[in-house]
Structure formats: C-alpha cells, structure tokens
Design goal:
Layout: H1 2-6, H2 9-24, H3 34-38, H4 45-50, H5 53-56, H6 59-71, E1 76-84, H7 95-104, E2 109-113, E3 135-140, E4 145-150, H8 156-159, E5 165-172, H9 184-194
C-alpha cells in the first residue's frame, strides 16, 4: 500500500519537479504578507511564477512551470531501487552512478527517496502508543458499528522493523535545457546496459 498509494510514482514525480524548481529558483519566495499570500490562486499562480526574474528570462523554466502546474506533463521515472532498511548500509546503491551518467548527458534529473519523504510510518513496540497519524476504520457486522484503530495494528509491513524498506527513484525531465526532447525509455535502456550490467 505504501508503494502503491503514499509513495506513488505520480506523487513522487511532482515532488521531484518541485525539488528541481526549488533548487533552480533560490530567490523565489511566496509573500509573507497574509493578504498578498492568499491573493495567489489557481487563476494567477502562473503569473506569480513568471514574475520571478530567473523564470521570466529562461524559456526552459517557463515551459517547465507551465507543464507542472497546468498541463500535468510530469517527469518520468528511469530508475528505481527498493532496499530493505536493515540492508541499507551494506547494500551499495547505484543511484549515484545513474545520476552521474544523467548529469554528463545534461539531462535535468532528481532523486527522491522514501526515507526523506514526509509520509513515513513508524513501527511500535508492544504496549507503546501509536506514532502514526494514519488510522483504519474497522466495521463490525454484528453490531453495525465501527472502530478506528492505528494502521500498524493491521499491517505487518509497518509493525515489523525487519520489513521496513527504502525506495529510491530517479526522475528525468521531458527535455534538456537546450530544448532537446528526452526519451525516457531510451534512457532506461542505456542505464540497464551500461550501469546495471
């Protein structure tokens, strides 16, 4: 469920693009004045981003922001690792090699890790209080009622430390900063042939 819902590739693609935007536009800030802040809505948010000097003077970034906010043309995942938490220090990651290769090709890229994601679950010891905000609703057919309980009471994945895992995903843009189109399937094939062999 974690992989399919909370850390879904579409949500993490958006996270990757927002991370890229944050790194590129270091002087982009939402206003601190509450009236100015709440005046930014769906109608004028594109104008807000285009007022930023770096975005306004950069055709790649203008297109990037428009695709992220309005066209939902999201970056594509080209590499993924799933590593059990207890093997994290002993199992070498290939992400740095993949990122280095993409950087050498001038391909805009981002790495997103579940360990750094806000949606995480914590196992609890016997008798400990729940550390998670997620609950499940259990229906009782005999009383026609229901109870609300912590999610880890009904999930082996969350309740067992030895089953925790970290997911690492590498996403690439749809085009280079020079406007050349990027084919994610070709990138995946090259990664598979050159790095994963």
């Amino acid at each position: 469920m974690y992989n399919q819902v909370y850390f879904h590739k579409t949500a993490t693609a958006c996270e990757a693009m927002l991370s890229f935007l944050n790194q590129k536009c270091i002087h982009l800030f939402f206003p601190l004045d509450i009236d100015s802040y709440i005046s930014i809505d769906d109608y004028n948010i594109l104008e807000f981003f285009y007022e930023n000097t770096f975005i306004k003077n950069n055709s790649f970034m203008k297109k990037f922001v428009r695709e992220l906010l309005f066209e939902r043309k999201l970056w594509k995942r080209v590499y993924e690792e799933t590593v059990p938490f207890h093997l994290l220090t002993s199992s070498p990651s290939l992400c740095h090699k993949v990122l280095q290769f993409l950087k050498e090709q001038d391909i805009p890229t981002e790495l997103i890790e579940s360990s750094a994601n806000l949606t995480r679950f914590s196992p609890k010891g016997k008798g400990d209080a729940s550390k998670n905000n997620f609950k499940v609703i259990l229906k009782n057919a005999s009383t026609l009622g229901h109870t609300v309980e912590p999610i880890e009471n009904h999930s082996n994945l969350i309740n067992r430390v030895d089953e925790e895992f970290v997911i690492k995903r590498v996403f690439v843009a749809k085009y280079t900063e020079n406007g050349e189109e990027i084919d994610p399937k070709s990138i995946q094939k090259i990664i598979s042939e050159r790095i994963l062999k």
